[in-house]
C-alpha cells in the first residue's frame, strides 16, 4: 500500500513537471512569434540579446553570427510543441546543464527556445531518496508495532490456555478475564464465559438431580429391602398384603425412571408427535370432565370458563397429559374446600387455585428435574411432573408462566 502511494506521488510529480515545462515553452513560443511580427530584425535581435537566461535560453542565427544565451543550435531540433533534451557546458560550478527545448518558426527564421530541466531531475532524486527513507521508516515502525501487538496477543492466548487447563482439571468456576478494549478477544471471552456459566449450571443441575434421586428413591428402596427380609418371617395370611406394599414401592421407583426416560425423549425430540388439529376448548372440557370428580372428593370447587375456541396443530395425548398434570397439582396441593378455576380464552389457558402457592424464588426452579419443594416431600410423586409439562409445551411452541393468584397460584399457558 505504501509503495503504491509513493509510486502514485512520483507519477504525479513527473506529470506536473512536464506540464510546467510545456506551459513555459508554449508561452515563450507565442511571445517570440508575436515579437517577430511587430518589430524589425534589429529590434528582434536586441530583444533576444536582452532575454534573461533564468527565464529561458534563446538562440537565433542572424545573417552575421549567433545571437542569444546559446552559441549553437543542436542538430535535429524539433519544432515546438515537440521538444528535445540536450546538454550544454558552462564555466560555473555546475559545468553541465541539461536543457529541454525546441524551435519556434518566426518571420526572421527559426529561434531555439530552451529551459533548464536538470534541477527537476535533482528534485526527483531528492523525492525518491525521501520516499525510500519514508518507506523504510514506515516498514520498520510497522514491524515494531506488529511485534509488540503480536506479543500482546500471544500473552493473552497463553493466559487463556492456562485458564482452559484449569477448567479441564475441574475448576469450573474459572472465567476468562475481560479488558476495557471490548475487542474480538473480549467478545470471545464473553461467549466462552457464557458457555462456562451454562456448563456449571448444568453440572449443578446434574448434581441436584443425583441428590434428589438419592433422596426420593432411598426411602422406597430401603422399604423394599426391609420388606423382603421380613417376608420369610410373616405368616402366610399376611404375605399377600406385604407383597402388595412392596410392589407399590417398586412401582413408584419404576414410575420415576420411566418418567425420566420419557422426559428425555420429549426434550431431545426423540418422541415423534402425533400431530392433529386440537380444539383448546374441547381439550379443556375433557380436562374438566376428568378432574371434576377428583376435586369433589376433596370437597373442592372446580369451575370451567370458556371463550373463543382456537384449534392448534399438536399431539392431543401429550397436551392433555401436560394440562392434566397442572390441574392435578392444583387439586393435590390445595386444601379442602379450595376453589380451582380452569379458563380458556383464545390461545391462552390458565389454571388457578387459592392454595398455598409458590414463592417467587421457586417459580422457575420447580420446572427442573426431580425438584420437589420441601413442604411437598411427604407427598408421593416423582418430582418430574412440571419438567414434563414444560418439555411438552416447548415441543408445541407454547410458553408456561407461574404467577401469584393472591392467594394461590395461577399457571398460564400461551400457545
List keywords for this structure.
alpha+beta, rod-shaped, 18% strand, 12 strands, five-stranded mixed sheet, two-component regulatory system, transmembrane, 415 residues, 3 domains, single chain, HisK_dim/P_sf, histidine kinase, Helix Hairpins, Heat Shock Protein 90, 8 helices, five-stranded antiparallel sheet, His_kinase_dom
Describe what you observe in this structure:
The strands form three sheets. This protein has a five-stranded antiparallel beta sheet. A five-stranded mixed beta sheet has the order 7-9-10-12-11, with helices on one face. Strands 6-8 form a two-stranded antiparallel sheet. It is of the alpha+beta class and 415 residues long. The longest helix has 51 residues, at 118-168. The protein contains eight helices and twelve strands. It has helices at residues 2-38, 41-49, 118-168, 184-231, 236-267, 280-297, 316-333, 385-395; strands spanning 57-61, 66-68, 84-89, 96-106, 109-116, 275-279, 301-306, 311-315, 339-345, 348-353, 399-404, 409-414. The protein folds into three domains: 2-122; 184-267, Helix Hairpins (Orthogonal Bundle); 275-414, Heat Shock Protein 90 (2-Layer Sandwich). The protein is rod-shaped. The model has no long low-confidence stretch (mean pLDDT 78). The protein starts with a helix and ends with a strand.
Amino acid at each position: 500500500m505504501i509503495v503504491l502511494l509513493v509510486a502514485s506521488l512520483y507519477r504525479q510529480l513527473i506529470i506536473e513537471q512536464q506540464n510546467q515545462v510545456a506551459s513555459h515553452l508554449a508561452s515563450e513560443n507565442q511571445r517570440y512569434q508575436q515579437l517577430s511580427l511587430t518589430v524589425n530584425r534589429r529590434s528582434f535581435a536586441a530583444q533576444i540579446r536582452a532575454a534573461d537566461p533564468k527565464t529561458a535560453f534563446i538562440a537565433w542565427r542572424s545573417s552575421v553570427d549567433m545571437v542569444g544565451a546559446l552559441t549553437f543550435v543542436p542538430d535535429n531540433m524539433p519544432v515546438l510543441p515537440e521538444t528535445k533534451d540536450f546538454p550544454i557546458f558552462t564555466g560555473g560550478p555546475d559545468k553541465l546543464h541539461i536543457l529541454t527545448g525546441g524551435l519556434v518558426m518566426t518571420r526572421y527564421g527559426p529561434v531555439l527556445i530552451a529551459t533548464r530541466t536538470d534541477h527537476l531531475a535533482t528534485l526527483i532524486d531528492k523525492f525518491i531518496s525521501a520516499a525510500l527513507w519514508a518507506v523504510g521508516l514506515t516498514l520498520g515502525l510497522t514491524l515494531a508495532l506488529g511485534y509488540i501487538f503480536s506479543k500482546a496477543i500471544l500473552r493473552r492466548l497463553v493466559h487463556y490456555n492456562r485458564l482452559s487447563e484449569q477448567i479441564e482439571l475441574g475448576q469450573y468456576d474459572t472465567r476468562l478475564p475481560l479488558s476495557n478494549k471490548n475487542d474480538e478477544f473480549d467478545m470471545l471471552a464473553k461467549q466462552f464465559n457464557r458457555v462456562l456459566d451454562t456448563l456449571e449450571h448444568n453440572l449443578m443441575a446434574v448434581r441436584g438431580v443425583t441428590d434428589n434421586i438419592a433422596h426420593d428413591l432411598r426411602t422406597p428402596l430401603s422399604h423394599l429391602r426391609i420388606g423382603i427380609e421380613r417376608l420369610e418371617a410373616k405368616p402366610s395370611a399376611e404375605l399377600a398384603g406385604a407383597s402388595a406394599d412392596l410392589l407399590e414401592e417398586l412401582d413408584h421407583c419404576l414410575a420415576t425412571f420411566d418418567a425420566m426416560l420419557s422426559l428425555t425423549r420429549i426434550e431431545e425430540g426423540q418422541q415423534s408427535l402425533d400431530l392433529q388439529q386440537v380444539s383448546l376448548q374441547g381439550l379443556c372440557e375433557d380436562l374438566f370432565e376428568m378432574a371434576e370428580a377428583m376435586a369433589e372428593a376433596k370437597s373442592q370447587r372446580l369451575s370451567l370458563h370458556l371463550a373463543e375456541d382456537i384449534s392448534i396443530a399438536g399431539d392431543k395425548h401429550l397436551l392433555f397429559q401436560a394440562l392434566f398434570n397442572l390441574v392435578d397439582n392444583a387439586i393435590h396441593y390445595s386444601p379442602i374446600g379450595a376453589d380451582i378455576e380452569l379458563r380458556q380464552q383464545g390461545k391462552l389457558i390458565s389454571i388457578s387455585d387459592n392454595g398455598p402457592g409458590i414463592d417467587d424464588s421457586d417459580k422457575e426452579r420447580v420446572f427442573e428435574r426431580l425438584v420437589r419443594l420441601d413442604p411437598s416431600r411427604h407427598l408421593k410423586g416423582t418430582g418430574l411432573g412440571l419438567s414434563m409439562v414444560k418439555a411438552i409445551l416447548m415441543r408445541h411452541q407454547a410458553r408456561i408462566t407461574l404467577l401469584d393468584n393472591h392467594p394461590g397460584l395461577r399457571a398460564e399457558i400461551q400457545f
